[in-house]
Amino acid sequence: MAELPSGLLEACVVVGASSEKLRDIYQNKSSELPLLEAEVLQIHAPPFISKETNSRQVMAPAFSRVQKRRSFIKKKRHDRGTDPLPNGDSVTRPEGTSTTEDISVPKDLDLIALPQLCFPGGLQLAGDQRDDSYHYLVFTDLFGNRTHGVVVQYYRAVQSFHESLVQNGSRPKTRLYAAFAVCIISKFPFYHALRDSLSCLLVQLRTSRQGDFEETVKEFSAKLSLVPLPPPGSLHVSFSLRPLQVLLPSREDPDSPLVDMDLHLPLLCFSHTALLQVLSCLLQEQRMVFFSSDWSKLTLIAESLLLYLQPLSWQHPYVPVLARGMLDFLMAPTAFLMGCHISHLEDVAAETEDLILVNIDDGIVQSSWSDTVDLPSIPAAAAESFLSRAECLQIHYDLDSCHTGATTDVNAARSQRRDWQRRLNTQIQNIALELVVNTFRGVQDFLNHEHRVFNSEEFLRTREPADQLFYKKVLETHIFHTFLRDRLNRKLDAFSRMEQKTLNLSHRNRAMTESPRRPPLPKVTRSGFRTHTSPKLSKRLGASLPNLDQPLNDTMASLVLNRHRPQSVRKMTPDVGLKSPPKVVRVFRLPEFPPPLSYHYVKNYYSDMAAALGKALNATPPDESALLARYHYLRGLVNTVSNRHLDALEDFQSLYKTDAEIFPSQMVKSLVDSMPNVERIQAEKRPEIKGLISRVIRDQEREREGQENRSEEAAVKHFQLPKKYLHLEEFVKCVQESGIVKDQGTILRLFDALTVGHQKQVGPDLFKDFYTIWKETEAEAQEVCLPASVLERIETGESVFKLSSSVKTSHGVGKIAMTQRRLFLLTDGRPGYVEVAQYRDLEEVKVSSAPFLLLKIPSLKLRVKGKKETFEANLKTETELWNLMIKEMWAGRFIADQHKDPQYMQQALTNALLMDAVVGCLQSSKAVYAASKLAHFDREEVQLTLPKTTTETLKHKINPSLELAAPQTIEVLYYTLGQLWVSLGGGTVMVFDASSWSLTHTVQVGNARLSCMLAVTEDQVWMGSEDSVIYIISVLSMVCNRQLTDHRAEVTGLALDLDKYR
């Protein structure tokens, strides 16, 4: 049997008190009913249909798992006598000894703790009938894998039948009611679906004889084991368990969590401020305990809150329901998230320290040592956005459905409620995801992917001062470490998609036009959250536009004005800016379950299911490829279970071509391995199936080869200053890890500058001095506060990167400021602005001397185009450095204008700033000479002139390798409406906005070199690769979900026959 993914049912367990204990209690007739010890009475786990019990023909166990299992020894009594049964009947048992029945159960099922968790408050007898009660469990194994359980407690009457006959022949009137629990355990959190299933089971149990109790539960379990789980996407699965139609929702995509619960419950229990406080505690990995008088709330609230933090995931012990005998777990020294009954709140607060106590019933968050929580809050700007959106949510179904009439169909009413809940869940998930994105936006900018380094120190410097303590705590957590690992692995998850979607123009242009590490100057665009959410361009190097002198356009200006409108005028809605086209959800309804679960009937059941899926495939139009892929997935799964291996492989081949994202490679590999030789030979005769098998085997081999790199992929390093002398190779790596600069050519020049007159190695003290001065100049640039009158005279995207000391100039006394566009004088006394020159207008830069008494003071003279007077500044000891820096900026401006490429200006600015840091750290007579080694564009040997014809026709130039450690060859260049697609080596595709020439997306398309591209439709770009595959990219999602794999050689070209489609 091929290995299959887990089905809906992992096990069904019945827990309660043994009949012997119940009989003893009834006979003793104590005035007080004691708490009983619960024990496992029944376990039902797949497989339910097997060769031994059903037929000569081999039938695959219904969605069984090839996994480690163990035995559960179940007692079966055969001694003569009668046993009381919960419904009041008796059963005759013959004399003899007890025997046992060995039942196979999942190995990771904890049968010791399960009875306590099914009755966390204890198993209590009652003198009257009690209402049914549901609660939810989460089990976590040593590897962090979670299993979920839904428990129903229900009461049945119990009485002793040794006293069943009295003198008048009537039964005694005194009755006891004992609680029994049925727990469904699943690998997936289908909380609503399993709760509905248990509700249907109780209907059957109440109408069946007690003697049929075990068989009824077993049949119920077997039915659930026949249910296939829906693949990720917009196709749900439903099945009938009379009287309800039960729905299994699917995940949105393979990386998204499964949501089958009401995500607005925390919003009903907590104020929005308290809710943010709880989320902040989770992000800081505190020791947290939830309390409630309702066991079900503990798990549902905890699960909802963890979903709010997606894609960040909780890494510590997680036990949302603690039985009364498990309270010692709260003494654990590590971070944890646990829950217990509200009655234990005072005892827990008194006996433990450093706990965050969350009272769900009252919506209160406190600590075990105080009525308040003294922990940093979520950053204010992110919290403000969350509060604004959360206040506009409509979380009351009755208010939203006032206009609708009553329905007489219970399933129709449930369907309406589910649709409303699904829409609300989507809104809440978007709002929560935006909170996470706003909190951690920009982390990507401080990662070095080549060396897997996160520059935490620099990231902290860009956060708001009031938020520093929060980030310092969060950056040390496991939850953030895992998040960083996914960023370094370039995982395209919900966070990445929303961050990309909500990037403003300023942030999108930054990678192409801004100095990567110089912060913006004005406080209104201060770094941190507001830097990335402000619609203004960043105060660094301006917009990367074809006309480099263009001011802020009208569209951006209107955005700026709108940003500063009063909050009361700007109406906030829950999902403004977050809306995506509504997704149509389809439901595939499974056939009715067979009455007797024997081999023959189950085989027919799967045949009917495959036929129904075939009809659905035929009725689905070809343009709905996503839906077709889901139908192929389900039918392939059904055919696999039914041992129709070749049919299953055909379905999986169609799935692979339609949507490779949900292709179950491990399942197909196991299916191929389990095929008999006869079927394997038949499969080899079919080209498509043969190709699929070869591809799966090849992918498995690649995966095995990649196992060696798994440890590196899991590592996240923090930048540390070196502690030993650095040779060239080590120096290059250290500088790249520091985030100062990535370009190897620039680093080589920096190495030469720092080693002038010394051995070709950089000492740890020298590197530390250089790094410290680099950071100090960044901090100084951030702290400079320009008056409003000066800000009005410079471009929106400008920052001051270098500020001289106060000097005498030909225009008065003041400080010379260097931005990425110009030089200006910031006059002393009454602050004023005097423009010196824009770099493109310079005609001459030279070092001179100004007479002062009997002295000659070094000065710098600038001759500017269109100005008669020469600007002169007595920069004294700074003269030589400023001369180098201004000449480099002048040369960079000239080349940038000639090439229509602002990246040269960025490189020139980086060179100038490195010169400044080198002079500052060397402090010697050779410092300026050493800094001159970094003058790249101002050297005569640098020939970057273009032919005249190129200069006349060139409009703009971009460098896709700018953020890479070394330049890469451009393999393919392709233009679609508004987008420029650039293919580099190894399947990397970069997409640029054709209006601003800014990088918008980076897509990984296979691992081989791409050779051609073609826009087939408005929302699809096809790419041919040397690995013989045609990859189909969705323009909307920037994801490759479809592939054409019939080719046997490199795809060298693509063409579209337009006449054929007219």
Overall description:
With 1062 residues, the chain is α+β, with helices and mostly antiparallel strands. The strands form 11 sheets. It has a 5-stranded antiparallel beta sheet, with helices on both faces. Strands 15-16-14-17-18 form a 5-stranded mixed beta sheet, covered by helices on one side. α23 packs across α25 (687-705), α27 (728-738) packs across α28 (744-754) and α31 (879-899) packs antiparallel against α32 (903-922). The longest helix has 31 residues, at 410-440. InterPro entries: cDENN_dom, dDENN_dom, DENN_C, DENN_Domain_GEFs, Quinoprotein_ADH-like_sf, TPR_DENND3, Tripartite_DENN, uDENN_dom. This is DENN domain containing 3. Residues 69-494 form the UDENN domain. Residues 73-102, 509-548 are annotated as: Disordered.
